[in-house]
Amino acid sequence: MKRKPVIVVGCDHAGFGVKQYIKALLEEMGYPIEDVGTHSRKNVDYPDYAERVALAVKKGKQKRGILACGTGIGAAIAINKFPGIYAALVHDGRDARLSRQHNNANVLVLGGRPYRKKNVANMLRTWLRYDFEGGRHRRRINKIAHIEKKYHNKIR
Ligand code: RB5
User: Which of 44, 76, 104, 133 is deepest in the core (most CB within 10 A)?
Assistant: First the structure.
């Protein structure tokens, strides 16, 4: 059986509820978890937690990340600034599947205000189940990596 990757989880105050729910699901499924906060509903800034998740994911080879804020939008914008992070803001099971099969997303981003348990559980299980399909999608991912390299620090 394949070894389960460590899942790094992070959120701001608005994503705290959904992050806690995700942690419970991951525990149930037997995934090792690294929780980088936040740990309460006290107001914080989502870019700080995007940074924590990004750095933790980049540290370990097999790690994957899950990040939540109110809508998921700010979190997705912030974490996609980090080299090597391919974060997908998903809203349903289909998004979750395609974010793996086509985009090889190593970070799943969710909105926590509001969230539906059934939908979150479906998105999480689907995202963990599917693998990257490669082929023509590899070519496109390589182009994204090329853009990252080409423009890094060059646009003011
Ligand atoms: C925080 O109030 C909220 O703006 C944040 O969680 C997120 O939704 C930003 O995109």
Answer: 76
Q: How far does Cα 37 stand from its chain's mean position? A: 14
Q: Which atom of ligand 1 is nearest to the CA of 73?
A: 10
Domain-located, residue 59: yes
Containing domain of residue 19, as a range? Answer: 6-151
d(CA 28, CA 31): 8
Summarised one tens digit per residue, pLDDT across range 107-136 is 999 999 999 999 999 999 999 999 999 999
Q: Please answer whether residues 70 and 14 qualify as being in contact, where contact means their C-beta atoms are separated by less than 8 angstroms.
A: yes
Measured between alpha carbons, how far is 8 from 112 in angstroms, rounded to an integer?
17
Q: Looking at residue 35, which CATH number applies to its domain?
A: 3.40.1400.10
* Alpha carbon distance 88, 91 (integer Å): 10
Instruction: Determine whether 69 is an active site residue.
Output: yes
Domain count, the chain: 1
